[in-house]
Design brief:
Elements (H helix, E strand, L loop, with lengths): L1 H34 L3 H18 L3 H16 L5 H17 L4 H17 L4 H10 L1 H11 L3 H9 L5 H9 L1
Helix pairs in contact: 1-3, 2-3, 2-4, 3-4, 3-5, 5-6, 7-9
Length: about 170
């Protein structure tokens, strides 16, 4: 009887996990559909974001969120899909090199993607990226030829716009 209960509990747990995985997959599809305008773009976004997540040891869902939000924001600046994919990978790699845990990387990706979506990195978003993705901040500071203190002042002044982030992180 105990063995049968264990099997039933395992089956129930597996069903819950399968449901969660299906929800995550559907969420990824929805995010990438919002960020693309053709089937070819969508297909490339699916395969490339998955490959980026694999290469950078990050969650595919977080990678898709970052891609979606940066894509929508950067299209206003004329960015190509290739550029958005390179930027997505650069950010994921910077987080990996920063030694960010999965939770920290998720927080930084969320905050950075919100900064791209709102076209400015400041306040809580700046603090989260600074705490969880030091390599991103170092790349920004180096690209802008400023120190970390000056970077914080630029953030407070609203000078770290989406275009500034785009140029700095593309280097």
């Amino acid at each position: 009887a105990l063995g049968r209960m264990a099997v039933e509990a395992g089956a129930a747990l597996s069903a819950v996990q399968i449901g969660q995985m299906a929800d995550q997959y559907n969420n990824i599809i929805a995010k990438l559909k919002l960020a693309t305008s053709t089937q070819a773009e969508f297909n490339r976004a699916m395969s490339e974001t998955f490959a980026i997540a694999q290469r950078t040891y990050t969650s595919w869902e977080n990678t898709a969120v970052l891609y979606q939000r940066t894509s929508i924001a950067l299209k206003e600046y004329g960015a190509s899909q290739s550029e958005v994919l390179r930027l997505t990978e650069t950010i994921n790699k910077a987080l990996q090199v920063s030694g960010a845990t999965t939770i920290q990387a998720s927080a930084a990706i969320l905050q950075l993607s919100q900064a791209f979506a709102s076209n400015v990195l400041r306040g809580d978003e700046f603090n989260s990226v600074a705490e969880n993705g030091i390599r991103i901040m170092q790349a920004l500071a180096r690209s802008l030829n400023v120190g970390m203190g000056e970077l914080r002042a630029m953030a407070e002044a609203g000078e770290l716009t989406g275009e500034v982030l785009r140029r700095a992180l593309a280097d």
